[in-house]
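Run 3-dehydroquinate dehydratase through structure prediction, thanks.
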Amino acid sequence: MKIQIINGPNLNLLGVREPSVYGNMDFDTYIATLREQFPNVQIDYYQSNVEGEIINKLHETGFSYDGIVLNGAGFTHTSVAIGDAIAAIKTPVVEVHISNIYAREEYRHMSLTGKYCKGVLTGFGLDGYRMAVDCLVRK
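Sure, done. The structure for 3-dehydroquinate dehydratase is below.
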Protein backbone atom coordinates (compact mmCIF):
# COMPACT_ATOMS: atom_id res chain seq x y z
CA MET A 1 0.00 0.00 0.00
CA LYS A 2 1.22 3.49 -0.90
CA ILE A 3 0.09 6.68 0.78
CA GLN A 4 1.18 10.19 -0.17
CA ILE A 5 1.19 12.94 2.45
CA ILE A 6 1.00 16.44 0.99
CA ASN A 7 1.54 19.47 3.22
CA GLY A 8 0.82 22.98 2.06
CA PRO A 9 2.20 26.42 2.79
CA ASN A 10 4.20 27.20 5.91
CA LEU A 11 4.09 23.63 7.18
CA ASN A 12 7.81 23.38 6.42
CA LEU A 13 8.14 25.55 9.56
CA LEU A 14 6.53 23.04 11.93
CA GLY A 15 8.45 22.91 15.17
CA VAL A 16 9.32 26.60 15.06
CA ARG A 17 6.14 28.24 13.75
CA GLU A 18 3.65 29.19 16.46
CA PRO A 19 4.36 26.24 18.78
CA SER A 20 1.30 27.11 20.88
CA VAL A 21 -0.87 26.31 17.83
CA TYR A 22 1.17 23.71 15.92
CA GLY A 23 3.39 22.12 18.56
CA ASN A 24 7.17 21.96 18.72
CA MET A 25 7.91 18.87 16.63
CA ASP A 26 9.18 19.23 13.07
CA PHE A 27 7.51 17.09 10.43
CA ASP A 28 10.64 15.11 9.52
CA THR A 29 10.79 13.80 13.08
CA TYR A 30 7.08 13.07 13.12
CA ILE A 31 7.00 11.23 9.79
CA ALA A 32 9.76 8.88 10.95
CA THR A 33 7.52 7.91 13.87
CA LEU A 34 4.52 7.56 11.56
CA ARG A 35 6.43 5.24 9.24
CA GLU A 36 7.39 3.08 12.25
CA GLN A 37 3.71 2.81 13.19
CA PHE A 38 2.80 1.59 9.69
CA PRO A 39 5.74 -0.62 8.64
CA ASN A 40 3.77 -2.29 5.82
CA VAL A 41 2.77 1.00 4.22
CA GLN A 42 4.96 3.09 1.93
CA ILE A 43 4.41 6.64 3.17
CA ASP A 44 5.79 9.33 0.89
CA TYR A 45 5.96 12.96 1.93
CA TYR A 46 5.78 16.18 -0.06
CA GLN A 47 5.55 19.81 1.07
CA SER A 48 5.17 22.93 -1.01
CA ASN A 49 4.35 26.57 -0.45
CA VAL A 50 3.17 26.82 -4.08
CA GLU A 51 -0.44 26.07 -5.03
CA GLY A 52 0.35 24.77 -8.52
CA GLU A 53 2.97 22.36 -7.19
CA ILE A 54 0.40 20.87 -4.80
CA ILE A 55 -2.01 20.44 -7.72
CA ASN A 56 0.75 18.77 -9.76
CA LYS A 57 1.48 16.36 -6.89
CA LEU A 58 -2.22 15.50 -6.58
CA HIS A 59 -2.33 14.76 -10.32
CA GLU A 60 0.90 12.74 -10.15
CA THR A 61 -0.18 10.52 -7.26
CA GLY A 62 -3.96 10.63 -7.63
CA PHE A 63 -4.16 7.67 -9.99
CA SER A 64 -1.37 5.43 -8.70
CA TYR A 65 -1.44 5.69 -4.88
CA ASP A 66 -3.90 4.01 -2.52
CA GLY A 67 -4.52 7.16 -0.51
CA ILE A 68 -3.54 10.77 -0.02
CA VAL A 69 -3.38 12.72 3.23
CA LEU A 70 -3.63 16.43 2.48
CA ASN A 71 -3.04 19.35 4.78
CA GLY A 72 -3.66 22.21 2.40
CA ALA A 73 -3.00 24.71 5.20
CA GLY A 74 -4.08 28.21 4.12
CA PHE A 75 -4.99 26.96 0.63
CA THR A 76 -7.83 24.97 2.25
CA HIS A 77 -9.78 28.20 2.60
CA THR A 78 -8.89 29.81 -0.73
CA SER A 79 -8.12 27.27 -3.44
CA VAL A 80 -10.91 26.31 -5.78
CA ALA A 81 -8.18 24.82 -7.99
CA ILE A 82 -6.95 22.35 -5.34
CA GLY A 83 -10.56 21.33 -4.72
CA ASP A 84 -10.99 20.74 -8.45
CA ALA A 85 -7.81 18.64 -8.50
CA ILE A 86 -9.08 16.45 -5.65
CA ALA A 87 -12.40 16.00 -7.48
CA ALA A 88 -10.56 15.00 -10.67
CA ILE A 89 -8.47 12.15 -9.22
CA LYS A 90 -9.52 8.63 -8.25
CA THR A 91 -7.36 8.15 -5.15
CA PRO A 92 -9.23 8.88 -1.90
CA VAL A 93 -8.03 11.97 -0.01
CA VAL A 94 -8.31 12.63 3.72
CA GLU A 95 -7.93 16.27 4.73
CA VAL A 96 -6.01 16.96 7.94
CA HIS A 97 -5.56 20.10 10.00
CA ILE A 98 -3.25 20.19 13.00
CA SER A 99 -5.24 22.90 14.77
CA ASN A 100 -9.01 22.97 15.13
CA ILE A 101 -9.92 25.26 12.24
CA TYR A 102 -13.36 25.85 13.80
CA ALA A 103 -11.79 27.29 16.96
CA ARG A 104 -9.77 29.82 14.99
CA GLU A 105 -10.50 32.89 12.88
CA GLU A 106 -13.85 32.76 11.11
CA TYR A 107 -12.33 32.70 7.62
CA ARG A 108 -10.68 29.38 8.54
CA HIS A 109 -14.05 27.74 9.21
CA MET A 110 -14.68 27.14 5.50
CA SER A 111 -12.87 24.43 3.57
CA LEU A 112 -13.06 24.67 -0.20
CA THR A 113 -11.34 21.28 -0.46
CA GLY A 114 -12.96 19.17 2.26
CA LYS A 115 -16.15 18.37 0.36
CA TYR A 116 -14.12 16.44 -2.20
CA CYS A 117 -12.37 14.36 0.47
CA LYS A 118 -13.28 11.06 2.06
CA GLY A 119 -13.16 12.82 5.42
CA VAL A 120 -11.70 15.73 7.35
CA LEU A 121 -9.74 15.55 10.62
CA THR A 122 -9.16 18.80 12.48
CA GLY A 123 -7.72 19.68 15.85
CA PHE A 124 -5.91 16.47 16.79
CA GLY A 125 -2.41 17.87 16.38
CA LEU A 126 0.07 15.80 14.41
CA ASP A 127 -1.84 12.68 15.50
CA GLY A 128 -4.41 13.60 12.85
CA TYR A 129 -1.99 12.28 10.24
CA ARG A 130 -1.86 8.90 11.97
CA MET A 131 -5.64 8.85 12.14
CA ALA A 132 -5.86 9.67 8.42
CA VAL A 133 -3.37 6.96 7.44
CA ASP A 134 -5.22 4.47 9.64
CA CYS A 135 -8.49 5.40 7.91
CA LEU A 136 -6.98 4.87 4.48
CA VAL A 137 -5.37 1.56 5.47
CA ARG A 138 -8.68 0.24 6.81
CA LYS A 139 -10.77 1.41 3.85
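DSSP finds five helices and five strands in the chain.
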